[in-house]
Structures are given as C-alpha cells and as structure tokens.
Amino acid sequence: MASLPILTAVSDTAWEVDFVAAVDRGAASVNVIRRCVDVADLLAAASTGAARAVVLSAELRRLDASAVSRLRACGLHIVALVPAGDEPSERRIRQLGVGYVLPADAPAELVIQALESAERSGAVRPTPTLGTIGPVSAPSAPAGRLPPAAPFAGQIAAPVSGPSGGIAMPPLGNSARHPVPLRNYPAASNVIAVWGPTGAPGRTTIALGVADEAARAGISTLLIDADSYGGVIAQHLGMLDEAPGIAAAARAHHHGALDVATLSSYARQVDRNLSVLTGISRADRWPELRGEAVVGVLDRAKQLAKLVVVDCGFCLEDDEELSYDTAAPRRNAATVAALGAADRVVAVGSADPVGVARLVRGLVELGERVDTAAVKSAIVVMNRLRRSAMPGDPAREVSQAMQRFAGVEQLAFMPYDRDAADRATSVGRTLAEVAPRSPLRTALVELTVRLLSADMLPPQLASGASA
C-alpha cells in the first residue's frame, strides 16, 4: 500500500527531527514530503496537491480559521500538536475545527496512528479525538461537533417579563444592553435560511416574522442578520446603538475564540425567547463575513438557541475576477454558506409581474449554486399579495405563473398589509406587538407552522394560535 504523503509545520524543531527520523527508520505508512517553516510556507506546499495530511503546531503564528479552511480546501487532513496541559490552546484549535489534537510531545507512533485514522475517515472534516491523551484531552463529541463550552461566568440577564406575566419588549434604543442567557443546547437545532432575489421582496419581514412567532410559541430563537449588502434587522427592532453582532462573532471564529458563551455576549435579547445577532453596520465591511466564518457562527448558534433564523442577502453569483484567487474573500459567501448549512430554506418573492420574473430566474440560480436537499424542497413565499398588482384573482395568476415557469406548485401567500408593517417598523416593534390581528401576522403564523419540525411544534402554534 502506498504511503500517505504528509507535510509538517512544527515549532519544536527537535521533535520534528525525531519524528521524521522515526518515519524514515521504520516501515511507516506515512511519508514526510516537506517540512514547512510557517503558515505561508505550509499553504504554498498544500496548494500543490502533493500531500494528503499535515502535522502542525497549534501555536503557529497566523494559524486561523482561514488557514484551516484553505488547508481543507486542498484536501488535507489536519493533526494538531498542543503543549501538554495548555487547555486554552486546545480549546482554540478545536474551535478552528481541528478534530485530531495530540500533546506536543506525543510519540511518533501515536501521531502516525492519528494520521492513518484521519485518512481512513475519508472526508476532510472535524473528527473525534483519538482517545484519551492525558491533560490535553477533552470530552469527545460527535463528528463535526465541538465539545461543549465551559459554563459562562459573565453576567446573565434575567428574562424580560410584562406585568401580567406576558412578554414585554425592552425600551427602544436599549436593546444592546440586554445580553442573551446562555443555554448551551446540544447543537441539534434547526436552521432556517430566508432568501429572495434582488428588489427587496420582503426577506427581512418574513425572517423577523417567523422568528418572532416561533419565540412567542415558547421556542428559544436566534435571528441572525447575514445580509452583506444592506441588513436592517437592528433598525426594524429599534436597536439604534451600535452592537458588535455577526461581524464580531465572525472575527472571534477567525481567531478560534468563538464559543457559545462568546456568541451569547454578542447577541442581544429582544424578548423572553427571541434574541438577535445584528448585521454589519456598513456595507463595505462585507469581507469580514467569510463563508467559513458564517458556518462557524451557525454551529455555535445551534447551541445557543433551538431555532436559528438567518436573513440572507439576495446575490448568489461568484465574482469571476476574484474566483481566480482562492484566498480572496467573496462578497456573497455569507449568503451561499448560510443557505448551504440550512435545514429549511424559504425563497421570498414579490407577488407582482416583476417580482415573479425575478423569483423565477433566482430559483434557477439558487439551485445551481446551492445543491442541497433544503434548497430542493424550499418553501416559496409570495409576499405583498394585492389585487392592484395583478388582473383578476392575484393568487391564481401568481400560482399559474410560478407553476408554468418555475415548476412550483405549492406557494405560501403573504397579504399586503402596508399600514401594519409601517407601524411596526416606525416604532421598532414586531408585527405581533403592534397589529396582532393583521392578516399578514396570521399568514406568518401559518408559515411558521410549516417550517417547524414536528418535535419543535408547540400545541398552541400547531392550532394556529400565538402564545
């Protein structure tokens, strides 16, 4: 059997020399094809495609989430060496997504065993640890999951309650001072991504409405603004103060410092069960929302809330000029990554001739760019349904057009209630707060019921009533 070609990038030169000598002495199943001096050298060697695994030191300078992502993109399995007893370093390297972690003084035989195990696992993804390795070992976790974070020692805000025991909204402009209670779920939550084509068809209205209705039914919900062009969830909820939000969470993931407790400190509590991770404050900050960072944030979000709703951007195209440089950020990577990681996808279009045409073209592009089961079974929502936009019966006309040109037979319609939507936005409240009897709110409840899995659906929501 051919030996496994590997790279090394180890700060302890003496250990590296002994490891290479041990590989050369015995009939090892691995072959060290290059010893790299730093991360830049390692990435250059990995890009040649000659190696299939790497042994590296966790304390390498500039070893971050982007570097780990690029190594994986080159098809390399990663085995990291951490100083014995250095729990912060081990936690950081695991949060970067490296699954095989060994002590820095591990014998060559144990490292080779880890490399062989990584190769046998096939897919290049985080994997369970290789058994107990003394003080560096952490509780094992399912493949693709990180071990539970340590309990958060920071200040936890009490739930916000109204005088009658119902949910009360925090004061306007004060939302950024309400941290989210740390719950630490077992990372089995549902992720719903809300997308729609260009033209502002109402993605944010749908995302906020679904998140709010799920929260009112007693489901712990985190709403994430991942729109890299013009996210406005903070404005919709009256959060006027600058909050770090998703940009700070993405930076923490990039440096391997994002755990559930850190994410909870960046999110802001809106009511008892609804919290928000606000978007970027300026559109030119889009390079901070790299695809791997968004996936990392979603992994932690699933441990913070039972339901995660993501408000995505509209654009899916890959910049042809940037696509020649694999290291360059992609402006639309946040949207594509969120859609790819979602359990359910909602495609929103405007119920008028222009909106239908844009959605038909957008659904084709969506299927080409994100080939997942969630996209193939996406729920199509036609927003702002009104008689003035279509001749005859608008629902029938839109249904026939979508069936003929997009092959979509099942649609969810959102009636156009401009007055209620404007009142909610003007005071920074949700639709259920300012217009609980609005037909738009009723339609949002019905959509929420369709989106939630059976095990998450509370009886009061299943019956069509809000909490």
Total domain count: 2
CATH class of the largest domain: Alpha Beta
Q: Give the spatial strand order of the biggest sheet.
A: 8-9-7-10-6-11-12-13
Count of helical regions:
18
- Name the CATH superfamily assignment of the largest domain: P-loop containing nucleotide triphosphate hydrolases
Strand content: 5-15%
Net shape: elongated
Using the CA coordinates, give the radius of gyration: 24 Å
Determine the fraction of residues in helical runs and give it as a percent range: 25-40%
Multimerization status:
single chain
Name the average pLDDT.
Answer: 82
CATH-assigned fold name of the largest domain: Rossmann fold
Q: Which CATH architecture of the largest domain would you pick?
A: 3-Layer(aba) Sandwich
Largest sheet: 8 strands, mixed
Kindly name the structural category: alpha/beta
Distance between the termini: 63 Å
